[in-house]
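A sample follows:
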Amino acid sequence: MMPSPQARPLFLLAALFAPLGVAAPKALVPLLIIIALWLLWRRWRQGQLRRPFQGTAALPVLVPAAVLAAWALLSAWWALDPAAACWTFTRLAGVMGAALILFDGRKDLSPSDSPPLRRALLGTFAFAALLLGAENLSGTAAHLWWYEALGTPKDFNPTVLNRAEILLLLAAGPCAMALWQWRPRAGALSAVAVLAVAAAVIMLGVSNSNKAALALGLGGAALAWWTGPWLQRLLAGLLAAGVLAAPLLPATLLAPDRLSGYFDKQHYSGLHRLYIWEFTAQRIAEAPVLGWGLDAARRIPGGDTILPQGGLLMSLHPHNASLQIWLELGALGALFWALLLAGLWLGAAGLGRRDARAAATGLLLAGLVVAHLSFGIWQTWWLAALVLGGVIFALALRLRPAD
């Protein structure tokens, strides 16, 4: 059975998210834009243009997100590089606009679209897991061959698969939930198998951040399965408070001089993170209210200082979403970011079924762990990955047996 014409854009998204995320994570950006433009063009031709999210359920997320984006644009006025700040805002606004269109596109689905969408999610996840697993087992042979073919073998880095692994994890949660909903008894084993496959692939990799995301994501999902929505409400408050307190931690609980004895040479990357966070907190203290302006992290004074053990004090970004927002957008930006995260968690608490709450808890924890340990929050491919992961999860929520 093929999807209906109105479901084809989202069917293509479901079919390409996991394979593209594993093979070429940066290709998720054009995928996001193409699907959004396709949906817009089809609605325009059919005279069905409408304002997305006309209700109030999404307001706890949309309002702080819109205010955060507006504040980010305003910060270009005092940014270290106003032109770069405006370009970063343009990319941010593009991703947010496309996200609204894709989330609204779920309204176009009909009951007959569930089987082909389910098959697309599961089949392409299996293909992506096989592809990434083979690459990990082979010692990244395909990537080594590619760098050699380009004549740049010295540029190869074993962390090249870190992006692919977290994207496989973001795809695994919705697939597991789709199986669980489809056949709650027999599907439970299949759902566990999907998560086990993703876990095995990630454990073969070298990223400690991804392994932490896996552990907290699976642990959080299991805990959410056995608890009520109070857990998500508790996490909403704790994480919002953590965001607001973030600049205090690098000088106290996470001070590198205090914890350096726990890191050997093999795990220096973890200690390096602590030094970056300490330096970031020092720069936050110099502009605590307004921040240094959007996209300032890569240009922050002193960031090019080389540590005695190796590495820069600021490697393009703080490797921590909350600290980066504090650094660039100040306390006001951090407040809007805290409200946005709280809105996401309260939205998860509002999901009526415990399987949906468990899956949402696992995905949110996994995404937040990586966002606070690895990638820069304004990296376009990472923003697109988070948005598309949320869209895939929203699609999976509709794939119920009653459909």
User: Anything to note?
Assistant: The chain has a mean pLDDT of 89.
